[in-house]
């Protein structure tokens, strides 16, 4: 019971931390008017959405899918093909992207339900590669590696910026509510010990499927928004290296925490743009950080920060009295 | 005669696949994890071979063992620094060892790709051929001289490795640890040493296959991605951890791709194996030759 209360107060702190990040992001356009840098932050918000989706699956449910970028690509192609072939707008395209990505995620979840650990990783990796190869080879439908041109749907970069921020905020709040509800406990129980969770009456099949579906739907939403922003949808969105970037964001920020993926996404993407002028070693640095954090600090930067705070607080509270 | 040609070329590709997959299979056997940086061992070997030949002026026949040694060293370092927590039990991950392995090897793969990209550059090098003859005619079959010699070398290396794993003291220690880590340690076998040997061997073999293929697939930083995916398919098809199963599965996959790319679809030749992988993981996770295992 104590852990239960503890995990609740923890997730509250994490939510406030992520809201703090959002506030900082919200005031950036007041100081930065450079279109390029606004674009960089918009792309980091795209990655933050993908990272949130993957964290729900990997960090909270313990299912290490290697296909988060693929669901983003599927969402982007859904709205892209609708716009390209039927001339539909983002108003139908984006909900369609969420539904299609979620539905494919649901089916995939049903298929891989019994697989764990390395088997799950291999299956989702193959799924990701198959989808990417099919999309890049179906030239008559998707124009292959040339990609599809997708129209934008809002005027101006700043509008898009705040639209992305609102979506990110909504997803984050939704996830917070989900994780605070009994569902959040079921998911974490499955992560920690699937068999024990089943013995205590958690419907494993149902909750794993839900987690997979929601994660895929979030990724689809992210991909669709990105497609309309970049005005180009190409198979590169689904490369394994993209998945690598998403994983490194979550691991560096803090796996299995609410604020980790968001902090990690902004940190990694913005830092990599800044580092680009200094020899382009950004990916080397991030890969190294992934290994170091994965090896020594499972909860990432957020875990380090929290441990630091807790030590300071403990020192202040516990004053030995003679 | 086309069929014979396809069969022969498929078998040759299969030989290279199996050189790559043996290491992955041994690693899975002993640590029960999938090494997602296996393609990067291959890449390191391809570069070591090519650069040793171009820059140091080494003869290709000396560059081959050089690549093996470099790959083995990389494997050894990786095992010591990153894989130890899997069995020494001091990682911060507790019971989530599979997840730890996925993240660490994925990060390692990113690190090696980008490190080589920065140090050597993103451009492709042309690996030197082992033999100058460009075309050989064996009956109705046409094959490049390098491909044939490389395949014969690979068969030789595979035979040696098979014999070593099966009969030598180290090899039998590896088998024992793969069967039962705890039991092996009770019998006085050092599991840490066995893991180190396996990683060195796996790194060396993958590097060797990269070196042998450097003339056919010119090394670039991400050249290892596809061979790695092929070897995942192979270890699943042959049964995770089974070396003979892996070799047979490699030959099957090579022939299948060779025929499939002509008779089914050239564009989708890389997807056949992936579909097989998913089907096997779902319906026959022990592979063609693996044994059903139970938890002790």
Note the total helix count of chain B: 11
Stretches of chain B where pLDDT falls below 50 for ≥5 residues? none
Task: Give the N-terminus to C-terminus distance of chain A in angstroms.
Answer: 34 Å
Radius of gyration of chain B: 19 Å
Structural class of chain B: mainly alpha
Which chains make the largest contact?
A-B, 46 and 47 residues
What proportion of the residues of chain A form beta strands (DSSP E)?
under 5%
The percent range for helix content of chain A is: over 70%
Structural class by helix and strand composition of chain A: mainly alpha
Which residues of chain A form runs of ≥5 with pLDDT under 50?
Answer: 1-5
What's the story with the biggest beta sheet of chain A?
2 strands, antiparallel
Number of domains of chain A: 1
Question: Topology as H/E string of chain A?
Answer: HHHHHHEHHHHEHHHH
Assembly state of the chains shown: heterodimer
List the helices and strands of chain B in order.
HHHHEEHHHHHHH
Report the span from N to C terminus of chain B: 52 Å
Q: Mind describing the biggest β-sheet of chain B?
A: 2 strands, antiparallel
Strand portion of chain B, in percent? under 5%
Shape descriptor of chain B reads: globular
Gyration radius of chain A (Cα, Å) is 20 Å
């Amino acid at each position: 019971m104590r852990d239960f209360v503890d995990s609740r107060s923890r997730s509250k702190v994490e939510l406030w931390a992520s809201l703090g990040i959002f506030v900082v992001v919200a005031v950036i356009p007041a100081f930065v008017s450079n279109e390029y840098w606004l674009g960089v932050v918009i792309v980091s918000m795209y990655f933050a959405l993908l990272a949130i989706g993957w964290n729900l699956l990997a960090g909270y449910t313990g299912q290490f899918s290697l296909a988060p970028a693929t669901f983003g690509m599927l969402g982007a192609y859904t709205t892209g093909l609708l716009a390209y072939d039927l001339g539909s707008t983002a108003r139908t395209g984006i909900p369609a992207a969420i539904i299609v990505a979620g539905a494919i995620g649901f089916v995939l979840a049903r298929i891989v339900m019994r697989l764990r650990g390395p088997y799950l990783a291999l299956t989702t990796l193959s799924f990701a590669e198959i989808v990417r190869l099919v999309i890049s080879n179906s030239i008559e439908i998707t124009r292959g590696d040339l990609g599809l041109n997708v129209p934008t749907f809002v005027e101006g970069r700043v509008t898009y910026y705040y639209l992305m921020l609102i979506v990110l905020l909504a997803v984050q709040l939704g996830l917070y509510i989900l994780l605070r509800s009994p569902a959040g406990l079921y998911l974490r129980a499955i992560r920690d010990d699937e068999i024990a969770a089943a013995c205590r009456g958690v419907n494993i099949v149902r909750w794993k499927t839900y987690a997979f579906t929601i994660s895929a739907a979030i990724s689809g939403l992210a991909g669709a928004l990105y497609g309309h922003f970049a005005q180009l949808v190409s198979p590169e969105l689904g490369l394994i290296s993209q998945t690598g970037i998403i994983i490194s964001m979550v691991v560096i920020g803090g796996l299995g925490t609410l604020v980790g993926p968001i902090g990690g996404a902004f940190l990694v993407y913005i830092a990599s743009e800044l580092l680009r002028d200094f020899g382009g070693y950004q990916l080397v640095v991030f890969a190294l950080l992934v290994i170091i954090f994965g090896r020594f600090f499972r909860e990432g930067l957020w875990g380090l920060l929290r441990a630091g705070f807790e030590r300071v607080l403990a020192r202040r509270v516990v004053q030995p009295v003679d | 005669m086309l069929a014979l040609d396809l069969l022969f070329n498929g078998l040759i590709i299969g030989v290279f696949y199996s050189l790559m997959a043996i290491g992955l299979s041994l690693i899975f056997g002993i640590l029960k994890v999938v090494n997602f940086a296996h393609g990067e061992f291959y890449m390191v070997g391809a570069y070591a071979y090519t650069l040793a030949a171009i820059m140091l002026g080494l003869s290709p026949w000396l560059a081959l063992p050089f690549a093996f040694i470099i790959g083995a060293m990389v494997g050894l370092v990786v095992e010591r620094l990153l894989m130890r927590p899997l069995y020494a039990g001091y990682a911060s991950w507790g019971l989530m060892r599979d997840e730890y392995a996925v993240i660490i090897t994925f990060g390692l793969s990113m690190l090696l790709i980008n490190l080589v990209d920065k140090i050597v550059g993103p451009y492709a090098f042309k690996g030197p051929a082992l033999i100058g003859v460009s075309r050989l005619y064996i009956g109705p079959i046409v094959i490049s001289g390098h491909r044939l010699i490389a395949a014969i070398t690979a068969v030789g290396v595979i035979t040696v490795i098979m014999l070593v794993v099966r009969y030598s003291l180290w090899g039998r220690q590896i088998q024992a640890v793969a069967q039962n880590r705890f039991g092996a340690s009770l019998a006085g076998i050092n599991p840490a040493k066995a893991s180190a040997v396996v990683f060195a061997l796996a790194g060396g073999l993958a590097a060797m296959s990269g070196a042998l293929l450097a003339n056919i697939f010119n090394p670039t930083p991400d050249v290892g991605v596809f061979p790695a995916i092929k070897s995942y398919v192979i270890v699943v098809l042959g049964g995770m951890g089974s070396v003979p199963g892996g070799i047979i599965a490699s030959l099957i996959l090579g022939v299948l791709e060779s025929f499939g790319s002509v008779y089914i679809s050239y564009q989708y030749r890389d997807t056949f194996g992936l579909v097989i992988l998913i089907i096997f993981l779902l319906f026959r996770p022990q592979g063609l030759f693996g044994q059903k295992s139970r938890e002790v």
